[in-house]
Amino acid sequence: MRPQPVWRADAVTLRLFDDADIPDIVASCRDPETLRWTTLRLDYGEADAKQFLAYARDSWASGEEAVWAMCLPGEDRWSGAMCLRVDRLDRHLGDVGFVCAPWARRRGLTPAALYVVCGWGFAELDLARIEWRAHVGNDASLRVAEKVGFRVEGTQRARLAQRGERRDAWVAGLLPADLRAPTGARPPA
C-alpha cells in the first residue's frame, strides 16, 4: 500500500495527524458553531480526539477514506480536518467532509484544502463524482463547496442524523469539469 499523500501548497498544508494535535482538536470540537453543524458529542474531550486520531490513521488502510489535518500555510498547527470517502458499492463515487477550527475560519484554508483533495480524488482515484452534504442552513460550508465548483442539487428531507434527530440536508455534486481553484489557491507542487 502506498503512503497517504501530504501536500504543502500556497494556501494550505494537508498532513497526517499527530498526537500533538489533540488539544487543538478538542478546542475546535467544543466550539459552539462547530457543534451546531456536526454530529460531535456535546461533551467532546481528549478521549474522543484520541479515537478520532486512531480512526484517521486507520482509514487510509481500509482503502475507503482518507483524512488529513489542515494547517494554515507556513504553520503546522492543526486547524481542521478534511476527508474524502469512496463509496463501497460504486468506486467512482466519493463524498467529502470537513471541519475548520474557529481560529482558521475566513482565511481560505478550507476551500484550498477541498480543491486539492477533490483534484486528487479525480486524478488518482478515478472518481467520476464527489458529493457534499450539510445541514440546511450551514451557509459557511455551502460557500466552501461552491468556491471549488460544487453545484447544489437539492434538499434531502431528514437525510442527516444529529443527536437523536433527523435533519434536512443540502446536497451538491462535483464533476471533474466543474472543479475550479478558489481565489488564491494553486495546485501543490
Question: Could you characterize the architecture of this molecule?
Answer:
By secondary structure, the chain is an alpha+beta fold. 30% of the residues lie in helices and 30% in strands. It contains five helices and eight strands; from the N terminus they run ββαααβββαβαββ. The chain has an eight-stranded mixed sheet with strand order 1-2-3-4-5-6-8-7, sandwiched between helices. Helix 1 (22-29) packs across helix 3. The mean pLDDT is 92.
Protein traits:
189 residues, alpha+beta, 8-stranded mixed sheet, 5 helices, 30% strand
List the helices and strands and how they pair.
Blueprint lengths: L6 E2 L4 E3 L6 H8 L2 H6 L8 H17 L2 E7 L8 E7 L6 E8 L8 H16 L4 E7 L3 H9 L3 E12 L2 E10 L15
Parallel strand pairs: 5-6
Antiparallel strand pairs: 1-2, 2-3, 3-4, 4-5, 6-8, 7-8
Strand residue content: 25-35%
Question: From N to C, what is the helix and strand string?
Answer: EEHHHEEEHEHEE
Structural class: alpha+beta
Instruction: Please outline the major beta sheet.
Output: 8 strands, mixed
What is the rounded distance between the termini? 23 Å
**Radius of gyration, Cα only, in angstroms?**
16 Å
Strands, count: 8
Order of adjacent strands in the largest pleated sheet: 1-2-3-4-5-6-8-7
**Shape type:** globular
The average pLDDT score comes to 92
Contiguous uncertain segments of 5+ residues: none
- The number of distinct helices, counting runs of at least 4 residues, comes to 5
Amount of helix? 25-40%
